[in-house]
Amino acid sequence: MAKNCKYIFVTGGVTSSLGKGIIAASLAKLLQSRGYSITIQKLDPYINIDPGTLNPYEHGECYVTDDGAETDLDLGHYERFLNVPTSQANNVTTGRIYQSVINKERRGEYLGKTVQVIPHITDEIKASIKKLGNTGEYDFVITEIGGTVGDIESLPYVEAVRQLNYELGKNNHLVIHLTLIPYLAASGELKTKPTQHSVKMLLEYGVQPDILVCRTEHKLGQDLKDKVARFCNVEAKAVIEAIDASTIYEVPILMLKEKLDHVVLEKLNMETDSIHNLTKWRDFLEKFQNPKQTVTIGLVGKYVELKDSYKSIAEAFIHAGAANEVKVDLKWIHSESINEKNVNEKLSKLSGILVAPGFGKRGIGGKVSAIKYARENDVPFLGICLGMQCAVIEFGRNVLKLEDVDSAEINTGAGNPVIDIMESQKSITEKGGTMRLGAYPCKLAEDSLSRQVYGEKNITERHRHRYEFNNDYTEQYKTAGMNLTGINPNSNLVEIIEIPNHPWFMGVQFHPEYKSTVANPHPLFVGFVKAAVTIKELIHS
Ligand code: GLN
């Protein structure tokens, strides 16, 4: 039976980066643990159609869904918390909203009318919110509004929320506003004024928040909660403390203690007695917070200055670490800082090396040197996308000893383009959303490391690339000891390379990190961390 969906909106005030995505995902986790089905959507106020054309330095990692949407990294958090796949419908930008309205205008769908922000843009926003609810699959849709209330860009979204408050009817929606209660060290006080102002601003736009989630470095105390409640027209029990946590994975437990989901259900006039099933979550947290040992793994990439650029990889290591009951100490190594001379000294303390995905020339030399080091010194290696392509280049140069080996992405005129542009990409000129994106099947070879690690014959993984292993070199590589162990059954594209004569050496054309969740740590990361632990123990025994 189609579900009667309730809508929860999460807005942010005072400052950006308060963690709306984590609060939304934590609330979703608590509701899910009570047996509800739920999805989370992010509305982004920027004008790009999607973040696929953004440099990671601008907006962190670009996350990719099964259906091939290039999305905001918050969708990664939603999937990691809920273990439910998201899709294009879960991430909508202002660019996409406007594009859709403008296309309709050109088709004559508003013929005779002046097309305006209200009602046309707000109608489009509302439609993209209701699209998820109307599937009949969900008890709740949580919609996170990107940006901070008061930004020019987010105004139409807040207006859409205001309109929905009337349209959806009582008990069918609520608004959670996430704010900051700063601590003034000089006077030793927590200050509520920024929160009061932020709620006033929301009120000016016609939106009264039902619940305030207050980020804070110190406990709030009942007096302070009462004060915030009084000034902001919310009930005292609806003032929720969100104290800084040591890990994002603790936030659902903190929100449980603060009864966030209880207040939500009460306000929506729903049953509050249902029992939470958080056994798996607590089990993970217990292992994550009490590791038996530490293993050091190097992440070699060119965007390491901004940790958000490799968000899903870092989180996948957290899941895989907990699965192995170890702490993964991730060393972020700038690929441009590595060269043939310093590589030994730079990488000698590592028990595993991961070479990251990426685009363009910068830092390629360092990546190739790191891979040579891993291959020659039996250090467990995982190469992801560009990391896999660099492993193919390294092998071509140093084992096959071919001349002028490169990827066509780096050198279009390379004598031996062992990585070449995919046939399907040759005619493409537009940049946005045109890579090979999303989930594709892959068949694993018998007796391969990947088959053993996955424990399955057929897998599907998510992709984001334009270049591929050049199949003209298949025989040469196999003969010299690099096996092509994962192949797309339809296009024959090489998805996985391995060196069997090495303790653990794997390159994957896809992005396993996007599919790692708390409930399902990714087998490749679990296997890689396990191999790193084994090497570490061997060296120290
Ligand atoms: N730049 C490479 C390609 O387009 C690798 C992409 C990636 O690492 N995501 O094929």
How does this model look, in words?
There is one protein chain. With 541 residues, this protein is α/β, with parallel strands linked by helices. The strands form 5 sheets. The protein has a 9-stranded mixed beta sheet with strand order 13-12-14-15-23-22-21-18-19, with helices on both faces. It has a 7-stranded parallel beta sheet with strand order 5-2-6-1-7-10-11, with helices on both faces. The protein has a 3-stranded mixed beta sheet with strand order 16-17-20, with helices on one face. β8 and β9 (189-190) form a beta hairpin. α5 (117-133) packs across α6, α11 crosses α12 and α14 crosses α15 (386-398). The protein is globular, with a radius of gyration of 25 Å. The structure holds glutamine. Residues 357-359, 385-386, 409, 464-467 line the site of glutamine.
Brief synopsis:
The chain has 541 residues and is an alpha/beta fold. Helix content is 36%, strand content 22%.
Q: CA-to-CA gap between the ends?
A: 60 Å
The major beta sheet can be summarized as: 9 strands, mixed
Could you list the spans in which at least 5 consecutive residues all have pLDDT below 50?
none
Strand content: 15-25%
Instruction: Report the principal-axis shape.
Output: globular
| Count of DSSP-assigned helices | 18
Q: Which small-molecule ligands are present, each listed once?
A: glutamine
- Structural class determined from secondary elements: alpha/beta
Q: How many DSSP E strands? A: 23
Mean pLDDT: 96
Major β-sheet strand ordering? 13-12-14-15-23-22-21-18-19
Helix content: 25-40%
- Please give the oligomerization state of what you see: single chain
What is the radius of gyration computed over CA atoms, rounded to a whole number of angstroms? 25 Å
